[in-house]
């Protein structure tokens, strides 16, 4: 494996990613804090979370014969679901993962490239859930987009491996690890894990990273 020339995430990097952080980290955090406050009766109505899910979560039934709450909901839900979470712990885990994955892909994903992979992966996660998930259950959370960033990171690593055989073995190993991790999480969360979104997001992230033009200095 050749040495990667990608730079580390420094202060300049984080300043450049401020718009992305405001949109995909701060906004979901504010939304969840408001919903949690409403859950406890500290703000608005305790039905606020239900209302938010009804209008922003991903509902597979809306791709069929369900009636949407507003025009365009069957389209907008492919992205709005990623701004909603199931509670503070769900939010915290996802936002911590976002920071880590941004650090791991800092050299190759900056500015519009990072946002593009994130959005494509969120949509891919929704597609995965639509194709494989249970029609009656809503889906929320940024994990589809996060698995997409993980897929982009793995693509960067795969691209550095010399030899088709070694590369194929590494890809197979990573897929096995991802499947095993999701299986453990699925059991630990009493089968409430949207593994379908993880799979769709990962595949979309790999595809998006492969389709992006290489930056100067990439190998």
Automatic annotation (TrEMBL):
Compartmental location: Membrane
Enzyme Commission code(s) on record: 3.4.21.-
Keyword Hydrolase part of the UniProt annotation: yes
Mode of membrane association: Multi-pass membrane protein
Family matches, as SUPFAM superfamilies: Rhomboid-like
Main subcellular location of this protein, as a coarse class: membrane
Name by which UniProt lists this protein: Rhomboid family intramembrane serine protease
Top-level division of the source organism's lineage: Bacteria
Any Pfam family the entry gives: Rhomboid
EC main group: hydrolase
Domain Peptidase S54 rhomboid: 76-212
UniProt keyword annotations, A-Z: Hydrolase, Membrane, Protease, Transmembrane, Transmembrane helix
Keyword Protease: yes
Gene3D superfamilies: Rhomboid-like
GO molecular function, one term: peptidase activity
Species this protein is from: Seohaeicola nanhaiensis
Transmembrane segments: 20-38, 78-102, 114-133, 139-156, 168-187, 193-212
Biological processes annotated in GO: proteolysis
């Amino acid at each position: 494996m050749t040495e990667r020339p990608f730079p580390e995430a420094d202060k300049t990097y984080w300043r450049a990613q401020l718009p992305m952080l405001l949109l995909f980290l701060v906004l979901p955090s504010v939304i969840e804090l408001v919903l949690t406050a409403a859950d406890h009766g500290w703000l608005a109505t305790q039905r606020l979370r239900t209302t938010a899910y009804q209008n922003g979560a991903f509902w597979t039934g809306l791709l069929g014969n369900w009636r949407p709450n507003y025009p365009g909901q069957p389209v907008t839900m492919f992205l709005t679901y990623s701004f909603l979470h199931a509670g503070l712990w769900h939010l915290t885990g996802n936002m911590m993962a976002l920071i880590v994955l941004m650090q791991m892909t800092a050299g190759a994903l900056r500015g519009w490239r990072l946002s593009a992979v994130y959005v494509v992966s969120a949509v891919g996660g929704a597609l995965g859930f639509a194709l494989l998930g249970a029609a009656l259950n809503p889906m929320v959370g940024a994990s589809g987009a996060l698995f997409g960033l993980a897929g982009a990171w793995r693509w960067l690593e795969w691209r550095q491996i010399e030899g088709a055989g070694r590369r194929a073995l590494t890809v197979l190993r990573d897929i096995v690890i991802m499947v095993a991790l999701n299986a453990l999480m699925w059991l630990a969360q009493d089968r409430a894990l949207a593994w379908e979104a993880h799979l769709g997001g990962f595949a979309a992230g790999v595809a998006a990273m492969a389709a992006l033009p290489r930056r100067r200095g990439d190998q």
